[in-house]
Design goal:
It contains eight helices and 14 strands. It is an alpha/beta fold. It folds into two domains: 118 residues, Rossmann fold (3-Layer(aba) Sandwich), CATH 3.40.50; 90 residues, Arc Repressor Mutant, subunit A. The chain has a five-stranded parallel β-sheet, sandwiched between helices. It has a four-stranded antiparallel β-sheet with strand order 8-9-10-11, covered by helices on one side. A three-stranded antiparallel β-sheet has the order 12-14-13. Strand 6, helix 4 and strand 7 form a beta-alpha-beta unit. Helix 2 runs parallel beside helix 3. The radius of gyration is 18 Å and the shape is elongated. The two termini are 23 Å apart. Keywords: Cytoplasm, DNA-binding, Phosphoprotein, Transcription, Transcription regulation, Two-component regulatory system. GO terms for molecular function: phosphorelay response regulator activity; transcription cis-regulatory region binding.
Length: 221
């Protein structure tokens, strides 16, 4: 899924970005407050990792702008500011969670998955449909209890479809989730991934909604 990382420390940003990509996320990185505000207008993100001390403004200002237009995108504040009053201010400003630097990447990923689950109204840490189960934390997919090997692109495609189970996901939304932009890849690329997922996980897992996109739901594997 698509994450916006707002962090002015290039070395830390690169380390976090690499870790998140390894964990199955797509990550866009910006280093100042104005660029963060622009990115949040121009693109849809599944969550935001937000530093507080930024060039050109504050992280709380970015958060206030986001919430001021009633955008409920999950926000996890990532900062060196560890005073209780600052943590309270961040949460009261609309952040969904708050983690203090330095941190372990595993904890950051776990907190990110948790705020994503809450934003989607889910309790279980895994996604499932029929006998197909996807565990984001372990990057593991099973069918009938047996592991199924997926490429990174296949994994992200399946995760988005399972997260929006019962709803139609358009080709453009899938392109954005897998590649970060639409209209820049071959027109049949998503269809190829869907074909591969059906071959590995069952022909009836993913339903084609002609003229719109794809859906995981009734009649799945």
């Amino acid at each position: 899924m698509n994450i916006l990382l707002v962090e002015d420390d290039a070395m830390l940003a690169e380390a976090v970005r690499a870790g998140l990509i390894h964990d199955g996320w797509r990550v866009d990185w910006v280093a100042d407050a104005p660029l963060a505000k622009t990115a949040l207008v121009d693109h849809d993100f599944d969550a935001v990792l937000l530093d507080l001390g930024l060039p050109g403004g504050s992280g709380l200002g970015v958060l206030a702008t986001l919430r001021g237009r009633y955008d409920a995108t999950p926000v996890l504040i990532v900062t060196a500011r560890d005073k209780l009053s600052e943590r309270i201010a961040g949460l009261d400003a609309g952040a969904d969670d708050y983690i203090v630097k330095p941190f372990q990447l595993d904890e950051l990923c776990a907190r990110l998955r948790a705020v994503m689950r809450r934003s989607q109204g889910r309790v279980s840490p895994v996604l499932s449909c029929g006998t197909v189960v996807l565990d984001p934390a372990r990057r593991l997919v099973t069918r009938d209890g047996e592991p199924v090997a997926l490429s990174g692109h296949e994994f992200r495609t399946l995760m988005l479809l399972l997260e929006r189970q019962g709803r139609v996901v358009t080709r453009e939304q899938l392109e954005e989730a897998v590649y970060g932009s639409s209209g820049t890849i071959e027109s049949n690329t998503i269809a190829v991934y869907v074909h591969q997922l059906r071959r590995k996980l069952g022909e009836h897992l993913i339903v084609t909604v002609h003229g719109y996109g794809y859906r995981v739901g009734a009649g799945a594997a």
